[in-house]
Amino acid sequence: MSETLNQAVHEEHLRSIETLIEHYANAESLPAQVRDRAREMLIDTLACIFEGRGAAEVSAFERSLGSNEAGSFRFPGGPLLSSWSGASVSAMASTWSEACEGLPYAHGRPGLAIVSALLALAVERQSTLDDVLRSLTVGYEVGARCGGWLRIRPGMHVDGNWPGLGVAVAVSSLLHLTAEQTIIALNIAACQLPESLYLPIKTGTNARNTYLPHSALLGLMSAFSAQAGLTAPRRALIEYAQIHSCDSGLPVPAYDHSFIEDAYFKPFASARHVHYGVEAALKVRQKLNESIGDINKIVLKIYPEAATYAGNRDPQAMITGQFSLTLGVASALRFGHMNPEIYTPSLFFDHELRKLEQLVEIVVDNQLTNSSVRRAELSVDTKSAKYVEKIEYLKGDPASPLSQQELADKFFRYSQHRVARISAQKFIDELLANKAGLKFADLWNLLF
């Protein structure tokens, strides 16, 4: 039970979320910078969804749902799906290669399950792009706040927990429910938040990739239930926080703080902790002129949380590789990237890659214990020289954001096996064109 967050603070968290929902229910439009960020969130998440659909397991999951529960939505090259099946496939695919968005305040990725739940539903219901961006934004803001408030306990994973709360609010928005109905949907979801284990990542199994589909479906069910007239206790979130949250809830944000603008987008396919070593190794590789054969020692000094969550050595499965500091450094030195292709067997088990991975020593920067500061220092020794690179800020963070063109390029690369480049370009151009009243279904059809 959370003991450090007193009743007054819980009440303040709840008031902030309810005020936010009421604000969006009455607001006429999104601020321009928020709308732009929502579009970028949509582009980045769709890129990850298209890339993840190429995995054999995701493809089989999509075919199974399509053959059993046909609806009016489909992906390029895929079967017909219902809105709920489409949400399940999208959510599973979105995190498959771990190249997705994230938000430090929430310690998770509020947008993945939301975008996944909205896609098929927006096509099915002939919603406008404005409806989708607005729903994505209010859902993200609520999900972010819930992530900062309802901190999970050690050994748990966020994906199967609070993301469903953001989905409930986002879907309620797309259904044009009132603020009161939206709060009911939020509390319906809060009454049944599941707990999901971190264990699959430790054991190299990929059950973790079913967590976000669960969250998407919980949010959908909660919103439709509220629309149908079901009710829920108004203080369900406070009850959950008191019983299930750990003791590290974060300060209550202002209701009008824009968390979607605080999100980061990833240039690499791995946990964010791994990116520090990857960026440092890429800089060393440039100095080496890609000549890595003489390397005889590699030391990565990094903040404690990274070593805790991404300390997997000699990973034998894709999901443990995504949380491996040593593999990230080795991949950047060996191949000059950590793209999703690194997880194909020919690269993942490359002999030279594995030799480099064994050389990497992880040293915890104890000065950063109990600190929110993140940084890394990589030193690489060869027979004739020593190279040292320090990384304090990552590409893709709000302080060093990916441009819209860089996000579009990521979309083109990640969707290239299922979407023709000319179709992908038309989709991006139309998405960024600010056309009033554009139907999301018309935008989606440009991909075919």
Automatic annotation (TrEMBL):
Residues 268-428 form the MmgE/PrpD C-terminal domain. Residues 25-237 form the MmgE/PrpD N-terminal domain. The lineage of its organism: Bacteria, Pseudomonadati, Pseudomonadota, Betaproteobacteria, Burkholderiales. It comes from Jezberella montanilacus. This is 2-methylcitrate dehydratase PrpD. Coiled coil: none annotated. GO terms for molecular function: lyase activity. Belongs to the PrpD family. Pfam families: MmgE_PrpD_C, MmgE_PrpD_N. Gene3D superfamilies: 2-methylcitrate dehydratase PrpD (3.30.1330.120).
